[in-house]
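Narrative of activities, Objective 1.

The group set out to show that a structural description can be obtained from nothing but a protein's sequence at a throughput compatible with the screening campaign. Below is one input-output pair from the validation batch, recorded exactly as produced.
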Amino acid sequence: MTDVTTVEPSRLRRIVAHPASLLLIGFALMVATGGVCSVVINKLFGTFDIARNTPLRMMGAVIVAAICIAVYKGYKRWIERTPDRELEFTGAGRELALGLGGGALLFTIMTGIVALLGGFEILGLRGTGAIWSMLAVAVFSGVFEEILLRGIVFRHLEAWLGSWIALALSSALFGVLHIMNPGATWFSSVAIAVEAGILLGAAYMLTRRLWLAIGIHAAWNFTQGWVFSVPVSGGEAPLGLLITRRLGPDWLTGGDFGLEASVVAMVVATLAGVILLLMAIQRGQLVPAPWRRQPS
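Output recorded for this entry:
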């Protein structure tokens, strides 16, 4: 009979493997990766200069997104020492396509409702406008922010504290991270936390992968900025496909932050998020809080 000896992990390894440690390490690693890559790409191509609208800008965003994915996979392999399920390429095309279609549809529905209420008008057709800049914004924000907020923050909080607390804390953090954006208010941050936090967190819970959430996030931003020429999370309104204008109170139009900070967006996106969340619960994807877990 072969004697199999189990080697206990070292104290350092046990500390590193705790969800709180993995969260801090992963968060710092991804923020550093996104920051360094953005600076380097900017020096090489000038791709993150908001005034530029060239294919180089899009190329730079794709390169940064690919590096972020590679770093996440390395983090999973050498720091977590677990298989990469969240960004596994098998089946990614289908989930990404569903997310892109869903994100574009959601923002179109929300914009249509605001228009019916008298808060949005289409004045004409501009053409391609700032398509390369908006594609770059969509790719970078979709990949980087979903890896950071759902792949790192939500996932480790969930393993540590359960799905409900993870959803609440990661959503709150998502809102807080947008408070420094141009045109931001406390209401816009609450809106982002509620509508996007629940929607994107539920998209991850449903699939236990990031591709659906990445698609929703990227398509939402692209449809908002390029199709409807609305500010994306603050700042100036980009030159998009349509010539548009917003009318009426901030609660309806979102004010300078953009339509995502409107009450309509909160209702539409949150409802979609709740639907995905209920689907995830039905599939048994809810992780209970530690004090409600059965002992192994």
